[in-house]
Amino acid sequence: MVAPSKLLPTPVFYGKRPWPGGPSIRQNWLLPDNIIYYIAKNPSSSKVYQKHVQICKFFFEKNPIITVAALGTCEKCTKYLISQNGHDRCIKIDLNMLSTKIWITRNLFVYKHIENFAENILSKIIRFEVLTLAIVNNDIIFDDLKFLVSSAKKVKLQENSVKYKNGTIVMFDKILECLPTNCELFCFYFRTDVPMVNASTMKKILKLQNLQNLKIFRMFLCPDTLSIEDLSAFIKKFENAKIFLRFASNISEEYKEQLDSLIDEIIESDVPKRVIEYDGQDEEKLQIMISRCSYVHEDDEDEVEEIDDGLDVENEPVADDKFESDETESNAGSTSVQ
What we know:
By secondary structure, this protein is of the alpha/beta class.
């Protein structure tokens, strides 16, 4: 929890920015004015932009941008939290009151039922370099999702409804297809009331060419419409990734028997870093799979923890929600593979 003393006042800018010492003084540039203007309007990186505005206020006046490491929702409206370092010293802002553009350089966290969040955020974004994206329990238009994940190395999508503009539900394979090739961690929670997979879903996923850099792949509340045969092929194809599959509580007994066969195959082949979990399974076999996981290493823990670190401010709903740990979504067995 961030101490109240760390909370900063909301920055609101209206009209021309006042500067100490009077208005801007015309600069005598060594380069032509049109080139300087182009540089001001097209900074090559957030670091370069920060250096420019520190050197001369001309650059901020011509292209006012707030660079933030992290942006997170805090209320069911346009109120958001921004952080310069991604974790603490949070500032609460109302995007509708902000006249500058925003440049996100690291993390974007969107929590539960934020109406029109994509429209609100994208209308203010001038640059987008999000490395960690997490969206929990929201309605998302697929075109917006494709933009939001475009640079992310770590993605967590929890119980969202993803649809095309015409209202049609987007299938799970299409969501995976829009991930960038640099994505290393993908965590997905299905919604039991939104059918996103069918008999051909896993076959389509196996043909995707953009998942070669996955290090951690986790799915929760998996339905029994996923083909066991294709799941087996997926596990074999991504031999270097850590794969954790937690199935929904309402899967059929017939499907549980098929899962048991896949679990036996995993155990007998001594394949590490694979855990399959469902209610009522053989606990001894579950523990065998868990014992073969190397999630205890520090580098693995860092990968998992970063995506669970939301912006945290006292008395804000987001502070209590953050990303609920996977322990609460599965039983005691799954807690060992975090």
